[in-house]
Amino acid sequence: MDTSVATSASKPILSVDHVAVQFGGLVAISDMCFDVHEGELVSLIGPNGAGKTTAFNVITGFQRPTRGTVTFRGTSLEGLKPHEVTGLGLVRTFQRTSLFEKISVFDNVLIGLHRRTSPSLFGTLLGLPRERRAEEALREEAWETLRLVGIEHQANEAGGSLPYGDQRLLGVALALAANPSALLLDEPVSGMNASETSRFIELLMRLRKMGKTILLVEHDMPMVMKISDRIVVLNYGRIIANGTPTEIQNNPEVIAAYLGGGVKNA
Ligand SMILES: Nc1ncnc2c1ncn2[C@@H]1O[C@H](COP(=O)(O)OP(=O)(O)OP(=O)(O)O)[C@@H](O)[C@H]1O
């Protein structure tokens, strides 16, 4: 089976090309090829130890591949450090959000936005008109971002005081503040309760409707089946399927990989 088949006619925004990762004698990933196209929501799934986190780390520059290349918007990520990958517009969220716990939710997002476009500090301190206008635009963007993820009513609360699910939403707000061309989410709903999960799913659906490109590593199978345009299945470091949720649910090799339980129930 050709697992690198693209489902969209557009040019891929992200290409994983013959990537392999070995840890000593252990092959964590072997010869992995897949593409993500602009505006697609692609999920990477697989049983425990299949190599999902390793793949995620390669794509975000946290792990060097033993072989192969990852290309993002025509630029090879070879040798780039994680912050350089972020600078290209490929932005990840973290399991443990790197927020400032003591400062407000709003200021957390504002700092994120400042990292991207920083009006001159002197100008801002002196209240020069151009800097003032830039600062106002950033503040408006911070509100928009908070409204988008649905935590605007907590804008004045300390980041660290938010409930777990809302901290994860703030994590997405911080990632969005970097103005990503593609967003990578590593098990975003793990540890969330049912209502937090459904809020997160609604957010992902909103982002998808807005045309954001999203790559998701996730264990929550009902969620993956509901929101993905395409699913890439890893097993023992190898891609065994790449297709729509319906194709994946009915793929015998995928069902066997999930020990007879089937992806529907995994
Ligand atoms: N730094 C490392 N050193 C040695 N082996 C590693 C390292 N990281 C991962 N592995 C091994 O590589 C394989 C793939 O692990 P990985 O964490 O990528 O899988 P996963 O699909 O994310 O699993 P899970 O769903 O349990 O998080 C596993 O056998 C794991 O033990």
Automatic annotation (TrEMBL):
<protein>
    <submittedName>
        <fullName>ABC transporter ATP-binding protein</fullName>
    </submittedName>
</protein>
<keyword id="KW-0813">Transport</keyword>
<dbReference type="InterPro" id="IPR027417">
    <property type="entry name" value="P-loop_NTPase"/>
</dbReference>
<dbReference type="InterPro" id="IPR051120">
    <property type="entry name" value="ABC_AA/LPS_Transport"/>
</dbReference>
<dbReference type="Pfam" id="PF00005">
    <property type="entry name" value="ABC_tran"/>
</dbReference>
<feature type="domain" description="ABC transporter">
    <location>
        <begin position="14"/>
        <end position="261"/>
    </location>
</feature>
<dbReference type="GO" id="GO:0005524">
    <property type="term" value="F:ATP binding"/>
</dbReference>
<dbReference type="InterPro" id="IPR003439">
    <property type="entry name" value="ABC_transporter-like_ATP-bd"/>
</dbReference>
<keyword id="KW-0547">Nucleotide-binding</keyword>
<dbReference type="InterPro" id="IPR032823">
    <property type="entry name" value="BCA_ABC_TP_C"/>
</dbReference>
<dbReference type="GO" id="GO:0016887">
    <property type="term" value="F:ATP hydrolysis activity"/>
</dbReference>
<dbReference type="Pfam" id="PF12399">
    <property type="entry name" value="BCA_ABC_TP_C"/>
</dbReference>
<dbReference type="InterPro" id="IPR003593">
    <property type="entry name" value="AAA+_ATPase"/>
</dbReference>
<dbReference type="GO" id="GO:0005886">
    <property type="term" value="C:plasma membrane"/>
</dbReference>
<keyword id="KW-0067">ATP-binding</keyword>
